[in-house]
Structures are given as C-alpha cells and as structure tokens.
Amino acid sequence: MIIVLKPKTKKEDIDSLIEKIKAKDLKPVAFEGEERTVIHVLGDTKEEVGNGWSSIRCVEKVMRILKPYKLASKEHHSHKTVIRVGGVTIGGSDFVVIAGPCSVENEKQIMESAKLMKANGIKIMRASAFKPRTSPYSFQGLGIEGLKLLKKVREETGILVETEIMDVRDVGITAEHVDVLRVGARNMQNFDLLKEVGKIDKPVILKRGIAATIKEFLMAAEYILMNGNKNVILCERGIRTFETAYRNTLDLGAVAVLQKETHLPIIVDPSHAAGRRDLIILLCKASAAVGADGLLIEVHPNPEESLSDGAQSLYPEQLTTLLKELKPVCAAVGRKL
Ligand code: PEP
Ligand code: MN
Fold first, then answer.
1. Which residue, 29, 63, 97, sits at the end of a domain?
2. Residue 235: strand, helix, or coil
3. How do 180-183 and 27-32 pair as beta strands?
C-alpha cells in the first residue's frame, strides 16, 4: 500500500503517521520527493486500504500496489531512478559503459586496464576480486588482495571501480574498497546476500540468474530495496536456453519488459551472454537500441593471457571501435554516450 501525502506536509505529521503504521506491525518506507512525501507500507496490507488512512489530515490518497514486487514496481515510483556514483549518473540521459577485465589478476594487469579504460573515456572499471568459477580448479580470484589493488588503482588513476561480492561476510570490506558492488548471476537468489547489500549505501548491480524469470529477478531486487538500499541497477546477462551457438541467450526482450515494469536502471552484459568476442559489438548496439541505460562489458589489455573469460574479452582496439559505433545508436534513441 502507498500513502501519498499532501504537498508541504510538516515533518511532525509525517513522523506521527510513521508511528501509526509501525503500531500496526507494518513497515513504513518513506520517499521524499521534490513536491511531496510518499510512504510505502510493507507487510500484509490487504485489509488496510479502506481502513481510515485516507481520512488522516495530511494524506492525499491511499493506493494498493497489485504487483508482487512493491518497491521495484513502476506503480510505486513512476519516474525513473537515477543513480549517482562519483560524477556518473546511471538511469538518466547518459548511456553508461562499465568496462574492464573479468578479474583482477595482478597489479600490472589492473593498472594497465585502468589506463586503457581511461584513455577510452570509461569512468567505471569492472574487475572481480572474488570469482564464481564453475571449476574449483580454475583461478578463484585474488580476494581481499584484489580489493586492495582496486582501491589503489582508484586512488592513482581516479577511475571508479566495480566488483563482485559473493559472500555476506565480505560485504563490509568490499564496500570500503570499491564504488559499486555486483551480485552475480549465481547469487541472484542468495537472499542473505541480497539483504546484506540492502544495508549499504553504495550502488549494487544485480545480475539476472541464469534461469530466472523476470518476476524472480524483480523479486530479488525487492530484497535489496526493502532493506534500505535504493541504488539497485538491474543487469541482463543472458539466460540458459537450448541454443549452443553462444554461451547464453541474451534476452533483450527482458530489457523491453523491465522498462515497463520497473523504475530501476537496466544495463546489459553481452560478454557473459555471448561468451565469444565476435558478437559483442553487435549485441552492445542492440542493447542501446532497445533502451538499456548502459553496458557491462569485458575488455582485457591482453585477452590471450587473461586468467578468466579471455575468449569473450574485447581487445583494446575493439573497445575504441565499439564506442565509436555505439555513438550514433545512442543518439538515435535520445541517449548521450
Ligand atoms: C561477471 O560479471 O564477472 C560474472 C561472473 O558474470 P555472471 O555473474 O553474469 O556470470
Ligand atoms: Mn567474466
């Protein structure tokens, strides 16, 4: 249920309404808009809508949200959420490209990567310190050491950094070292992890699970939102289908549906969808055309030597080509690259 307050409602009236909601064992989440405050009431509110709330003096109207995802839904928040990190805005008119290597491998590799990203105008670099690998014998990431390298690169080059979080125990230290956290596809329904990243104030990229429906994806985002973190960026990264020509099937239809269902920014990761670099530029252009707010892509200074996902990582010169070819596509859909 949503309670929309009248414009210019006094703080004491808002506080007293919040207390009334809590007294009914319901959870109030207040959103202060430019003009008015909206209070989202979470919990079992089926019987509450016609229960006298609308006759309280400061209340303009009371509405029921029918979608199972409440805070993520457009019914709750009709205008798009714009997330600010450093000087970058995600979900606004800019098209944001987050790029970098799959993993942090060593200081030389990550410093070279950051310089390469900066030379191409990329403002946020991706690189994982904790790696979810199919085989336990594959490179597992540098862990905390990798986080320290990301922080160092950030301090020395000024690039913002983004990395994956896999374990609830690492949320605090990861949030101290990087600008944006990412919950990977394999952890989309790790509910304890979702709750924990819901308690921090840094943006979180939530990737769609490899076999998750759009509804399950939005319900996962709801876990983060309802714990207080409103800075959630959804990421379509391909789902598992019968097709074997590529690693996963990039579901751009989901990007179209999500724009209708949610106010949250939506980015696309074509690298983990395709699994092969020759498709990346085309899929990036298609993502921009369908209305995505940005991309998450893998680029490596030397893909042949990459310790993970080399086959799908772009060569440095391909990043330059990609950005050049993306520009007119973004312009055609009213976005600035
Ligand atoms: C990644 O982005 O590094 C990654 C592991 O992707 P996904 O979780 O989508 O498989
Ligand atoms: Mn990867």
1. 63
2. strand
3. unpaired
- State how far the Cα of 38 lies from the Cα of 62, in Å rounded to an integer: 10
Ligand 1: distance of its center to the CA of 182 in Å? 9
Which CATH number covers residue 31? 3.30.70.1140
Range of the domain at 28: 2-63
Nearest ligand (C-alpha, residue 212): 1
Atom nearest to 296 CA in ligand 1:
2
pLDDT, tens digit (0-9, with 9 covering 90-100), for 159-180? 999 999 999 999 999 999 999 9
Asked if residue 146 and residue 29 are part of one domain, the reply reads no
* pTM of this prediction exceeds 0.90: yes
Are residue 151 and residue 285 in the same domain, yes or no?
A: yes
CA atoms 184, 175, 265, 94: torsion sign: negative
User: Is the torsion defined by CA of 178, 134, 284, 103 positive or negative?
Assistant: positive
Pocket test for ligand 1, best of 164, 271, 295, 300 (most atoms within 8 A of CB): 164
User: Model confidence over 301-329: pLDDT tens digits?
Assistant: 999 999 999 999 999 999 999 999 999 99
Question: In this structure, is residue 71 part of a structural domain?
Answer: no
Tell me the pLDDT tens digit for each residue of 96-133: 999 999 999 999 999 999 999 999 999 999 999 999 99
